[in-house]
Amino acid sequence: MKEKKGELQQKSAEELAKELRQVSVSAFFERNRHLLGYDNPSKALLTVVKELVDNLIDACEDARILPEGIVTIKTLTETRFLITVEDNGPGIVKENLPSVFCSLLYGSKFGKNKQSRGLQGIGASGAVLYSQLTTGKAVKVWSKTAKDKKMHFYEMFIDVHKNQAEVKKEETLDTTKAHGVKVELEIEARYQKGKQGVDEYLRQTSITNPHLQLSYVNPDNEKIIFKRASNNLPKEPKAIKPHPHGTELGVLMRMLKETKSRNLQSFLTTDFCRIGGGTAKEIITKALLNINDKPQNLMHDQVEKLYKSMQEAKVIAPPTDCLSPIGENDFLKSVQTEIKAEFYTSITRSPTVYRGYPFQIDCALAYGGELNPEESIKVMRFANRVPLLYQQSACATTEAIKETNWRAYGLQQSSGNLPIGPVVLAVHIASVWVPFTSEAKEAIAHYPEIVKEIKLAVQECGRRLGVYIRKNVKAKEQREKVSLFEKYIPELADALSSLSGEKKSIIIECLQKVLKKGLKDLLAEAKESEKEEIKGSIALGEKQQTLE
Fold first, then answer.
1. Do the two domains 244-312 and 328-456 of this chain adopt the same fold?
2. Predicted TM-score of the model (pTM)
């Protein structure tokens, strides 16, 4: 029907239905690359390197191999770079190579309740997608799984409509390399140094991964070696079953349909952690259900009652062997290796829980040395050993640091801001599920339980810093004042001798005695003051914990 002048042409439901189509995940992210961290050229370079280095470390840790990597960024033009990342990991079998690099949401860790850098299977394939989007070039991958096996080479694109690999070239090669993977990508980007550049990202990666040995050649052809600070691999986290207090209603409904358990009691005791037979009976009875009910037969209102009963049940916290914190000693060694300071301290808090998910906080602090005393303290944020360089102001870590009273520890601070002083503060959260604010994984959501734990870790490092400042820095200042006064003793003695007629030598001797006694009294007074301030600081921390 033709549209008359001044009238709207209506479409039928059948015509609209013809326009509907399913969009693949690759096509979606091709249009929305900013969701993966490819907001701008500078961040794009960082994100590609980040995803490939994360894969490098993950692969080695999974195979229980001390990771060694080579990262090279070669300048092709002012805005185009060739990125190569090579590792000594276990390699990837030939059959999985196309899917690992050219299928988004393809991976082995999604849904596993254990600490991991990546969970969604988007990282490496997202980098490949960005590469072909900006340069039209294929990804090149070399992989070898054992010394007595051939190396496999693939050159391929992502078919965004099918979310699968489109292989352009495939070869089998002979090489002396024992095992590992090498990836080569060409991308449009911009290289910059500074606190949000690739150089800083790799430096921070070496701090939070003390077992990593990394060789890096940047676009300026500068070679940097990040040395391994520890020969100990991190404790291997173990997957745990869901905790009843961290399960949502929709997830419970799905689990009831998919379970292999024959009755409700068996379902609760085998599909969840920390639920024994007695607790299961209590939950079922309170929900007005029967222990022999078949999980798949529950009606919606029955599932809701079961869910409510599970949330109200007294269940102990989930096991924490699913976590692998950095640890006080290794974190301290890493910070000492990369940051030149005069005082260092670190702490690892005991594990705790939010929404049924275990998490643990590591915190390390460096003070003085070459650090600038006139600027705000430098904050390093990490989640599951991965540095977070963007969106600092939106992160729970920054909020917790700002809310801490740093004046009690000897630093300057205005309300609602980071303190001023020569300090680097590194905070790491290890968790089964880190609540990032976006897919780019740059900031941690403001969960009260997480903010509280970060504050407690930061406060402990702050108290230790306060003790050091009072004991060393203030004592040094007092000695400098005494030393300055000592320089003027001869002139003062000369003037007093002229006025009193007493010998100059006798006056100098008396003044020196007074000065020594005064210094002794000052130091004793400072020591006593230090004790009182420490008590007050601890009391303040305990009061804050009670209030929270």
1. no
2. 0.77
